[in-house]
Amino acid sequence: MDSDRVLIVSPHPLFREGIIRLLGEQAEVVGVVRDWAQAQEVIRDLRPQTIIVDHQHTELKATDLTPLLWPEAEALKVIYVTLAGNQMIVHQRRRITGATEDDLLRALETDDEEELHRTAQKISGREESVPHGRANGGNRMRKILIPVLITIALGASLVAVLGRMNLTPLLGSIQAQRIDNLFTMLFALAAIIFALVIAFFAYSLMAFRRRPDDLEDAAPVQGSTSLEIAWTVIPLIIVLGLGAYSAGILFDISKAATPAPELEVKVTGFQWGWSFEYPEFGVVSGELVLPVNQPVLFKLYATDVIHSFYVPEFRVKMDAIPGIENHIRITPTRVGEYRVRCAEMCGTGHAYMVAPVRVVEAGDFQEWVAAQEAPAVPAEVAPAAVEAGKRYAQQYGCVACHSADGTARVGPTWKGLFGSQVTMEDGTTVEADEDYIRRSIVDPGAQVVQGFPNIMPATYRDQLPEAELDALIEYIKSLR
Ligand code: CUA
């Protein structure tokens, strides 16, 4: 090999002599100086390839590395030799513990970073030799064990807290139980993954933070194929598993109930209300009444834009789309009063697109059906017309916005409306006679009442047959 040009930096004659003798024929000692200051003076003239430094301490400090920043030092190898600790440190964070003379020579012979690194590994018996001053973390177990323990503690407490939080509303249907199981499982899994990320993140921030006097670059990190494979394959398995589990639940809650015959309810969503039709009984209602524990097949329609049929207590949810018939199956399990909420943004009245839901005992349901099945009433018989009008108010969803008992809703109440003086948006007053009520229904934008923004759909002109409109007006007139 070409002999290395070596500069020795040491104030001690014994050290200098020893190194020169050790190198023998294998290197050419081009100079011997006392300290770094002298070394800098001669470095340009002597052009050493390697500097061997008599290092007084067992660890390197950042200031010891300053010579590596000299412009001349670019192709320079600096070897720090410490006699006290029987330790040799080669520049660029290669610390060789327990180095022997042979190792020193071998380090000198090579300019190859890889080779130096391998030498360091072999001698120290460790995979990576760590920069000066930095605790090696000593034990790899601890690096893994601490974050794993944090993960378990944090994950377990999150799951425990979330489990007690009652995040979902009342369980109101058979389908709801399946949905809740899925929800709980997803939440627990998310909590554990969250804990895992936060634990390793927080531990790394604390354990590997920069020490005050540390100006070193971190050790270079090469890619890790096994790590890449692990964090691709594990999430893939999790996601595919969740997909299969969810698909199974979806399949279960979508299939027809086998023993009991299903009750069919046609649901129509419109801007902004709901109408429910029971074809079996010839009943149409603005209120959804269901017998408890009876499987129901809902057929969903929409007249104008996309709406979404959702009763939170039943959990399942389905869009009602114009021109398409959608299906959803629900078996209510709990007698009570709920609400259908439109769950798809559908215009200014979306927030008010609710309809009452009552789950009742089978007997009560039969009674309700019988009451609804009252024959269509001729409009000229006043009391009957009022009854019919009341049903139309339900059926067309009027009651979602207008109360019959003076309760404040989105629209003006009907109680005491007929014959009263109504203040318009522009401050004028109008008497609410029959013409006024009719105009308000067929052309809601024509006269807007003060304090009530005009969100009423203008579609009733087309939806309401004349006889039904008359009956509705009779009903409104009756609410004195
Ligand atoms: Cu209909 Cu939102």
Per DSSP, the total helix count is: 12
The ordered string of helix (H) and strand (E) elements is EHEHEEEEHHHHHEEEEEEEEEEHHEEHHH
Q: How many β-strand runs?
A: 18
Could you estimate the helical fraction of the residues in percent? Answer: 25-40%
Morphology: elongated
Our estimate of the beta-strand percent is 15-25%
The structural class is alpha/beta
User: What is the average per-residue confidence, as pLDDT, rounded to a whole number?
Assistant: 80
Profile the largest sheet: 6 strands, mixed
- Rg of Cα set: 42 Å
* Distinct ligands, ions and cofactors found in the model: dinuclear copper ion
Strand order of the largest sheet: 2-1-3-4-5-6
The unreliable regions are: 91-99, 123-138, 377-381
Q: Which key features would you list for this structure?
A:
19% strand; 480 residues; 12 helices; six-stranded mixed sheet; alpha/beta
What does the secondary structure layout of this molecule look like, with pairings?
Blueprint (H helix, E strand, L loop, with lengths): L3 E6 L3 H11 L3 E7 L2 H11 L3 E5 L22 E6 L4 E4 L3 E4 L3 H9 L3 H12 L15 H24 L10 H34 L17 H30 L8 E8 L2 E6 L4 E3 L2 E4 L4 E7 L4 E4 L6 E4 L5 E5 L5 E7 L11 E7 L1 H11 L9 H14 L25 E3 L5 E3 L2 H9 L17 H4 L2 H13 L2
Parallel strand pairs: 1-2, 1-3, 3-4, 7-11, 10-16
Antiparallel strand pairs: 4-5, 5-6, 7-8, 8-9, 11-14, 12-13, 12-15, 15-16, 17-18
Helix pairs in contact: 5-6, 6-7, 9-12
Dinuclear copper ion binds next to loops.
